[in-house]
Structures are given as C-alpha cells and as structure tokens.
Amino acid sequence: MEVLGDPLLSHSISSLAAIVVNVAKQTANFKPQLSQLQLTLERIASIIKDLVKWNQILDRQKQETDMFREKIEAAEKLVQKCLKIKWNLYKKFSHSSKLKDLNSELLRFFQLEAQADQSRDTKQTLVEVNYVSLKMDRLSMKVEEINQRTLQQMGYELTERGKLGWRVPTRPVGIVGLDGPLKKLKAKVLEDDDESSVVVVEAGGGYGKTTLAKMLCHDSDIQGKFTENIFFVTVSETPNLKAIVNDLINPNLSSHPVQFQSDEDAINKLGNFLHERVSRPMLLVLDDVWDDSFTNNFPLKIKGCKIVVTSRTNFSKYDVFRFDPLSDEDAKILFRRSAFTKSKERPKTTINGHLVDEMVKCCKKHPLTLTVVGGFLNGRDESAWSSMQKALSHGSSVVDFNEQVRNCLERSFKTLDEELKEYYMDFGLFPEDQRIPASALLDMWVHLYNHADDGHDTFNKIVGLSFRNLVNLMATRKSLGAILNYCDHQFVTQHDLLRELAIHLSSKPEVPITHRKRLIINARGKDLPMSIMQVQEPMQACIMSISTGESFSLKWGDIKVPKVEVMVLNLKSEAYTLPHFMKEMPKLKILNVTNDGVYPAYIKNFDLIGSLSNLLRIRLERVAISSLTTSILALENLQKVSFIMCKIGNAFQTELNNDNLKVWPGLVELEMDYCHDLVGFPGLLCSSVHLKTLNITNCNEMCQISEEFGKLTNLESISFRSCTKLEKLPGSITKLQKLSILDISDCLSLSELPAEMGKLGGLRTVYMKGCTGISELPSSVEELSNTDVLCSEELYNQWMEFDNVEAHLVEEDRLETLYRII
C-alpha cells in the first residue's frame, strides 16, 4: 500500500498496516477487530493522497497530517500490545474495545477531514479563492463551520443526490427503551437462515424504527460479522431507484455517477454489485420503505446477505419484527430526559412528581410525543405544566398542540387513497382505549359505502389500514363455531394518538362546524362543548358521534343535525337519556349505543327509538332495556338488531294492543350475545318471518325455545353456541327447510336432537363440539345428505356410522385448522 505526497505520512500508514497484518497472523484473539482496522486503512489510503496534495498547495500540511500521523503512531502501540495478551479475559475485553474505538476514530477523522466530498470541494474552492482574494482564512473558517454544522445536524454527509449508500449514520445517543428490541432484532439478523433473508421492522410514525436500525448497524456483534459490508439507504415515499443504486455501488462521490439506461439496467448492475460484495456476509438496511414492491428490486436470496427494512406498513410476506410498547418506567425516563435538562438559558426546574406522571400518561407512551412535549415544557414553571396537563386531560390533543407530532403521524394518512382515508377517519367515532367490534364497523359501512353483508369488503378495508399500522386487527375466537361473515369475532384497536389524528382530520378548524361530514363531540365534563351548543343553524353532518362521561348532566341543548344517517353514542353512566334532538333526524339509519361502564346503563327514554322510522340497524352494548314499546317493535325498515351484554329481562314480554302487529317485519338478522338474563327465545319474534340469521350465544340462562319457533321458515343460519342451560331444541325446528347452518357447540345441557332432524333437507353444516349431554343420535339423521358435522369424540363414532354424513373430529388444538377444512 503506497501513499504519495508526504513521506512521513506514507511511512506511518504503511507501518501500521504491516503491524496489523503481522499481529492478525499471530493471534486469534482480535481477528474481527484487526480485519476491520485493516479494511479501514485500505479504504482511506487513496483519499489521503488527495488530502496531502491539496494541503501542500494550501501550505497547511502540518495542521492536518501531523494530527493524523499522531493517531497512526498511537494505533501502532495499541496493536503491538494485543500480541502480548493471551489468557487475561479482562485485557482481552479492554483491548477489543480499544481497537473498536481506534477504528471509529480513524473513520471519524477520515470522514471529517479527508473522505467527505464537501471537504474536497472546500479545499478546491480555497485554492481558487487564494488567487482572487486576500481573505482566504476567513472564508475557509466560514466554509468549515458550515460543513461541521451540516455533519452534526444530519449525522452523516449529504450531497444533492441524497444520502451516501455505504456510510451508516452516526450512532444515536441517549436512547431509552430500545435495548430489548435491539437484542431481539439482532438475533433475527444474525440467524444463519437464508430462507429468511429479509427482516421488516414495522411500526407507526415516531416509534423509533430508524433509530433502532442505526443502533443495529453500530452493534459490535453486527459489525464483527458484516465488517465493512454494511449499507444504509433511506428510501422514502417516492424513491429514486437510479440514485439509490448509484449511492450503493459508487460511494466515492468525487468520481462520476454511474450511468443507467433505465431502471432495469440499474437493477441489473445492482445485482452484479451485490453478488460481488457477498463473498463476505453483507447487511443492507432499507430505511423508510412505504411499498413492499420496492424490495423486489433487490436480489433477496443471495447467500450471506441480510436485508433489514424499516416501514410503517406491514409486509406480511417477510419476517416481521414488531415493537413492544414502551414500559411505564422507560416512558418516564424518556420524558424526563427531554423535560429536565439544565443550561444557562434554561435553568433546571422542580416539578411535582404526580404532575410529571400525568404528563407522561397524556403522551400515550409514544416516543416522539414524549420527547417533543418534554422539550416544550423544559424550563417552564409548574403553572405552565398544570395548564398543559389540564388542557390535554379535558379534550385537547397533542396532535392539535404540536405540528411535529401531527406531521409525523399524518404522513401515513397522506399516502392512503381517498377511499381508505374515509374509513380511517371513521375510527375517530369510537372511544379511546376500547376494542371496536369489526361487526360494528360492518353495520356502518354497509350503509355508508355499500359493503356486502358477508363482511368481505369491510374486513379487506380493516386489513388495508392494519398493514399501514393505522389500526390493529385482533381475533378473539377461542372455540370452533359457525362464522357467518368475515367480521365475526374480529376486533380492532387503535393507538390513542392515531385516534386523535382521525378526530383532528375530521374537525379541522378551516372547515366550519356546520359543514363537516363527521361531527365528533367529546363531552368531558357535565355539558356539551360550547363550540357545539352555540351553533344555531342546522349542521350538515351525515355521521355523528357523541362521547360522554360519568358526570354528564344529560342536558343536550338544541342541536340541529337533520342530515345525520349514522349515530354513535359512547357513554359511561349508569343512567342515560337519549338526545331528544334525535327525533328531528329523519334520515337516521344506523344507531350504535355503547356503554363503557361496568354495569349496564338504564336508558330512561328508550321509547324515543320508536320515532326513528327509517332505522335499518341498531346495535346496543351493555344497555338495560326495561320494555320494548309497540312503536319500537313496529319499526318496519329495521333489518338488523344486536344486543351485546345487554340486560333484557322482560323487555319482550310486552302485551301488544294490536293483534295484527307484526314485530320487526323487515328483520333479517338478530344477535344476542352474553345477555345473561335471557331465559327463553322471545315468542314475539316468531312473527319476524323474514329473519334469516339468528345468533343467540353465550346466554347461559336461556333454557327454552317455544314451538312457535317453527314459524321462522326463512331462517338459514342458527347459532345457540355456549347456551349452557339449553336442554332441547323445539321439534318445530324441522319445519325450517332453508336452514343450512346449525351451531349448538358447547350446549352442555342439551340431551337430545329433534327426533325428525333428518327432515332438514337443506342442512349442510352442524357444529356440535362439546355437546356432552347427547348420548344417542336420532335414526332420522340417515336422511340428511351432503352434511358436514364437526363434533367432539363423544359423538364422533356415532356419526361415523352414517355414510351420508361427513364427520370431523374436533380437537381443542386443531380448531382453526378444521374450520378451514370445512
């Protein structure tokens, strides 16, 4: 290796390189560190040549080369000491760390003084300025100052073409809560599994994905394996493939950019480059990738190559690494680091510990928010803290308060198509920290966006949002039973800040309240917000949500919302009054009333619903219903009713004044889940002859069904799953010739099947896992045809005796698999 321009510098680098090679041959203790040091020396040699050349012209040789030569001499002594260390574990560890530090120092000097394209450009500029100006020193200092500031702000050098591909950004400092994730991610990357060459670090905006990727690149184990073959590329929302490939294969920006004929040509050259590099293990970090199709530009099956992708989007076809939420303790530490820094301009303040805890709670354990809000409060007195805490606790949002947080979160929203944006903003209608049933979304979206009743459209939209980490999709079904649509047993959760963003986007100040499509009202205290109460003219919203707390006074005021079609009421009180202005909502079609309190809420004026003649769907959760009036039961347009964890009592035992009244004549679907005081199927509903789907599940007190049940001749699906006290099915059930699905799973008290069950000619699937009380099947089942039966071991052998039935043995650990088979 030869360095021209300065004999002393040339001798120093050559001498160190020879010592490194010699020591590496004689000891195995420090091979990774010495190999990396050797590569660093080779990397900087050609650049030193240019540095010395320009320094000689500028007569600044002593100022820089002496400094570099001193580092080389110190390095020689350290490397020679390594040769003498044999078994001393402490010295091994100590000198290993020193070698890593030495390598970092050489690289840092190289980056700041020699390698940077800016540094070369500056020196060339200084040569020219030397001939036309006597103020060279002054200009030189100014240019150096700008360069240094740029490096400090950006973490690494930049050019107009973008970030350097091979140069990893500087290691972040003061990081909290990422040691655990780093350990887990590192384990994935170090796995010798060529089938899993791509690892996707997935999280929403502001969680620290990029920070974690930087930490990974600087990890000693990662550097020990991948050495100089660590590449870091920022992709962004609108990636320029040619520029990215050029930065990867042409890191020395002093040379001319690589010329590509097309993107395909760039991909081909990239493939050739990567195949050349992976004679040794290689790590490629693709930061901020928005579309998984971008990764298709990279060869994904090169042996020894690991690709780490950071993204806000869920790339399910790869090995996905998800962030664990910050612990309470880490959230406090991160917040305190921003909120309590001492400087001359910003003296350290003393704040009540409870107030600090409350502010951390308001930040929702979101890393970026904790840092931003902590920095905002830093140095302010306790009254400012109290004011901020009070505002955030009474409905104000960090999203409204801070533009940096808002912009970070809003980036994901802006990439959605216009249709998905509408779906996302609908999540602001529901209360914070609650699971949202996918079926509740289905009820709304069937009407708002013409979704199919089978839930397929709704489920696809939820999945689309979950892939972008804007919502979290979770399934809770633990036992096998009938699933009639894609949304059954599916729930959606959302981070509070993302919910606040949805509310912010629906309630932007530039759009007057009277002209908003969604009217979202949060009543934190006793009354509705004055911004709503003071509006005199009719509002144009077609979607409305009102959330009230335990202290709400039930004073609704005179609100005019005549065009509302979807109403979501979120309450927490034990006693509740429906808004009286609902009577003036002639277009209301979807009503969702959810009580988040501990006990069912008693609704005093429940009969108001009877005036809503255009209602199509009603969903009630944790509501106590004392009675159903004639006007409610006569709603002729009502298609679906859901009672979830409701206290029904004798509500359906209403004595009708009109013998000719048909109860809910348009009803197609009825759902009763966890209604523990329901004793029997309401006889009144046997006149709802258009009913197709009946789900009465987890109603543990229901023990009887009247023979009038046979009037429901249009029933296609019935579920009595987990009605543990139900003793028998009515014989009249055999009249239901359209019945296709029967679910009696976990009906523990059921002792027999109807004797004439074989007459159910349309029956295609029977779910009866856990029917331990049935000892014998009726002989008529031999009349069934093309029927699948899923049952437990107790009945499996009996069903196997009938050739006309396909029996499936259900084992607890194979429930999902068997369901898919059916």
From TrEMBL:
Protein transport found in the keyword field: no
Top-rank lineage group of the source organism: Eukaryota
UniProt KW keywords: Plant defense
The keyword Thylakoid belongs to this UniProt entry's keyword annotation: no
Position of the signal peptide: none
Occurrences of domain RPW8 (ranges): 1-148
Protein name: RPW8 domain-containing protein
Organism: Deinandra increscens subsp. villosa
